[in-house]
Amino acid sequence: MGLIWLALAAIAVWALVRLGRQSEKPGRGQWRIAATVLGAVLLAGAVLAGSHGAWLATAGMVGAGLYLIFSSRIRANLQRAAPKAARPEALSEAEARSILGVGPTATKVEINEAWRRLMGRAHPDQGGTEGLAARVNSARDRLLRR
C-alpha cells in the first residue's frame, strides 16, 4: 500500500513540474507556490515515515520534496533573469507611416491619435506583445523626430 502512495506522489510531483514548465505567461506563477507547499508537505511526510521506520517511503518523499522545491525556485530565477525584449531596429519613415497608418502629410496630432489607437490594442496589458508595442512606439518616435 505504501508503494501505491509513493507512486501517486511521484505522479503528482511530475504533473506539477510539467505544468510549471509550460506556464510561461505572467500571472501563472501560482504553480510555484503550490510546488513549494507540496514539497514542504512531502518533507514533513518523510519525517513522519522515517519515525515509523519506512525508509523507502522516506527516501522517496525526501527526494520528491527537494526536487519540487528546488525546481520551482530555479525556474523562478531563470524567468527573473531573462533578458528584456530587444529594442527594435531603426525604422525608415515609410515603415513608420505604414505601421501607424498615417499619410505623408500627417500632423503631430494625427500621429499621436494613431499611436494612441494602436497602443490600445498592442499594449501587453491589452493582449498585445512587448515587441509589437515597442514597434508602435518606435514608429511614433521616428515620425515625431523629423
Automatic annotation (TrEMBL):
Superkingdom classification of source: Bacteria
Sequence ranges assigned to domain J in this UniProt record: 95-146
Main location (coarse class): membrane
Membrane-crossing residue ranges in chain numbering: 43-70
Keyword terms of this UniProt record: Membrane, Transmembrane, Transmembrane helix
GO cellular component terms, A-Z: membrane
Gene3D superfamilies: DnaJ domain
Entry membrane topology: Single-pass membrane protein
Location of the protein in the cell: Membrane
Annotated region described as Disordered, given as residue ranges: 125-146
InterPro entries found in the cross-reference section: DnaJ_domain (IPR001623), J_dom_sf (IPR036869)
Family per record: Belongs to the TIM14 family.
Name used for this protein in its record: Molecular chaperone DnaJ
